[in-house]
Model the fold of this input.
Amino acid sequence: MQVLPDSNPTIRFQDFGPLLDRIDIHIDVPAVEFKWLLSDVFPESSEEIRERVIRARRIQHERFHGEKIFANAQMTPRLIRKYCVIDQPSKGLLENAITRLGLSARAYDRILKVSRTLADIEGKDKIEPNHVSEAIQYRTLDRNFWA
Done:
């Protein structure tokens, strides 16, 4: 995309799509409301989150023993097929997302890897439709924001 002086460039998804496809999770983080800054109520402590992440990393370490990788994000297409098996409802969710959002094959693989990670965080052996649905949501920002 070339920007000339005194021009009004329009940023389009086509300009950034290939770059965004290489990012696993896209999240829009709204500003925190002032009332929450003063609150003593926290839904989940950093320590609790840390423990869940450590458990998930342990699961991944065990899963990939002998595979020469240590995290879901490093899975090759062969390993995705091996470790990211999904049921029919999850396949339907993915098909709908790919079709409606125009997601790429790279985005498809990333959704599966993030789904596997979400299942690991919950301590689940199998990827469930709610994991796939959440992973799809993390890919929609690129289409909603840049479209």
Remarks:
- The CA atoms of residues 64 and 70 lie 6 Å apart.
- The chain is about 60% helix and 0% strand.
